[in-house]
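Dear support,

We are seeing what looks like truncated structure output for some complexes. This example has two components. We would appreciate it if you could run it in full and send us the complete token output so we can diff it against ours.
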Amino acid sequence: MSSPSTSSPEQMAIVLTESATDKLLPFATLVSGAIAMGFRVDVFASYWGLSAFRKGPSAPVVSPGHGELGARLERSLTTPKAPSWRGILEMAKSLGELHIYACSQSMEILGFQKEELDPLVESVTGVATFIDTTRSAQITYFI
Amino acid sequence: MTGSDGPPTTPTAPPTRMVVDARGSWCPGPLMELVRVIKEEPVGTEFELLSSDEGSRKDIPIWLNKAGHQLVELRPDSGFDRFIVRKTHE
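Here is the complete output from our reference environment:
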């Protein structure tokens, strides 16, 4: 690409703590948009955000409290044309620089092993390392 | 600044045109499809991207501007937009 980013790309940092599909889809959409725009994206997956990355299929989960709209979303998410948040992340990773880290505290508290996690998660990391990696990020999100 | 350092193109041959039908794909699906095919195809290729996502109308030109490729034409059709895009450099 011809953007002035040959030396050091712009960076987006995301702390992900949620696991409902209505959080994961906007999360994956933000990631892929940033990758498309040439950003490097670093994700710290913590607590329920980490549990979302356990291997294997998972049915869509809609956050409670949205009444009829929530039910409508759930129907939408179970149709064959519904986007898969993991699929969006996999495509983003194939097109740019996406790093997803497992929060080491969450790994211990929830009793997860690295092998249980989707290969999208590249390593187990402490929070200080994540802060150090993303200290210059221009955009940061907590989801 | 862009386009002058790419491989030589044959000016007599018409550009290859590739249709990318992303209608029905949700944001940012059409943009990601475009990013993918532009990465894969050679310089000079033209793409005809079809998108029914309303966000594409601004997203695609913004991305093209950032990536330095050319928007040849944006033509609204019935229920979708047609973007003609040319890859101008690697």
